[in-house]
Amino acid sequence: MMIMAKVLQSTALSQPVIGSVKRKSPISKSAKSASVKTLKTFKKKTVEEQFIHFLQLSCPEQKSALDLTLEVKRLLAEKVEFIASERFSEPSAEGEILGDIFLGSGIEQSPAKVSKVAALPSHLARLCETKLLSPDEERSLFHRMNYLRFRAEQLRSTLDIEKPHCWNLRRIEGLLKAADLYRDFIVKSNMRLVISIVKKFVNLQNGFDDLLSDGIIALLRAVDKFDIGLGFRFSTYATQVVRRNSYRRVMEKQAERQRNTGSIHENGIDISDDQKESSMSEARWNELRSKLSTMLDDLDRREKFIIRARFSLGGHRRIQTLQRLADKLGVSKERIRQLEKRALDKLRGMVELTPLSEPDV
Question: Greater confidence, 129 or 146?
Answer without folding.
Answer: 146
